[in-house]
Amino acid sequence: MEAALPYHGAMSVASEPITISVTLLSQLFRYLEALKVDSDAFLRSLGYDPAPFRSPDARIPVETYLRIQDEAADYTADPCFGLHMGEYAEAGSWSILGYVMMNCKTLGEASEKAGRYSRIIGNMIETKTEIGLGKVKVVFDTPPNVPAQSRHCYESTLSSSVRMMRILTGRDVSPLEVTFIYPEPRRRDEYERVFRCPVHFGRRQTSMSLAWDLGNIPIPLANPALLARFEQFAQDAMADIARQNEHTRAVTRLILSRLDDDGLSIDKVARAMAVSVRTLQNRLASEGAVFSDLHRDIRHRMARQYLRDRYSVEQITYLLGFSEPSAFSKAFKKWSGMTPREYREGQPSRASA
Fold it and tell me: What is the pLDDT of residue 7?
């Protein structure tokens, strides 16, 4: 997900094609134009026809989005490109989701809708919330099947989220604290200017902490009739996205239901779906998916979740269908570049939110 607001975040376990609404690029284009850069000429310089990027209903692969963002940062020589790009977010930047949120009664309700319909704008960044005394921390993470991202991606996500809170409420609200996993940059003062709160670098998580009572702030432009209409549009958009990935979703559900099967294969899944292996492979390929990648990515994501939930390595070995703990540990290190113990030690306990 490329956007998040407080109090509500969802981390799905389904591994599916990562796509982004082109509306998210509108804030990038607005920033380029503020710098007197012709955004259409810039896209052509990368070999892209600008026309598809102006269609509000279009979706693009995550690789395309990341390339455009990183190339724009290089072109402008702006080390804080993502941070500045987020300052140009508007309701329309978040497609129909932005208009749903504009018509909610409070910031808390808008956050709930953001969690429910976030896939409309993308599934590149996920969030989870950790509730503390008088505050909530929103932690930002990426699915294991998302390509490597530069800092601009996370920084635009947090910057645009704060910008949207200010737009929706008409108030100069700010987080209590922002943290990044990246080393401290040369221009620390720019981060403090944008977020207007303490900003820390080199931390274990990318996160944003907010006062609990922010959720009670009213949204002045709320209109219940418009909310109902826009929410219907949002539900239709979600249904369209689901239909586009129906075979990937069906296979994902079967994999999740049989994770403890150490012999799970595409043959078994195809039999359960009453289709041939070739048919299933072709259906997945039409959605940009491969069975072996789905199986691996779902195991990886569930392993991370179980480690965060303090399951033992032995329990996870059984739950994910590995023959023995050493086999799980070897696979986890291959997936993440660290052992299960190293990963667990880098995660905060649930009691320390």
Answer: 41
Q: Which residues pair with 135 in a beta bridge?
A: 132, 211
Q: Provide the total of helices (H) and of strands (E) in the chain, helices listed first.
A: 16, 7
Sign of CA dihedral 137, 70, 289, 321: negative
**For residue 52, what are the contacts with CB-CB under 8 A and spacing of at least 6?**
22, 58, 60
pLDDT single digits (tens) 266-324 = 999 999 888 899 998 988 888 778 898 888 888 888 888 788 878 899 999 988 888 89
Judge if 19-241 and 245-352 fold alike in CATH terms: no
Q: What is the DSSP string of 149-179?
A: --HHHHHHHHHHHHHHHHHHHSS----SEEE
pLDDT at 6 over 50: no
| CATH no. of 245-352 | 1.10.10.60
Start-to-end C-alpha separation, the chain: 22
Burial 155-170 (b: 16+ CB within 10 A, else e): bbbbbbbbbbbebbbe
Q: Give 210's strand partners.
A: 136
Helix (H) or strand (E) holding 208: strand 206-211
- Do 168 and 101 meet the contact criterion of CB atoms below 8 Å apart? yes
For the chain, the domains span 19-241, 245-352
The CATH architecture annotation of domain 19-241 reads: Alpha-Beta Complex (3.90)
SS3 144: coil
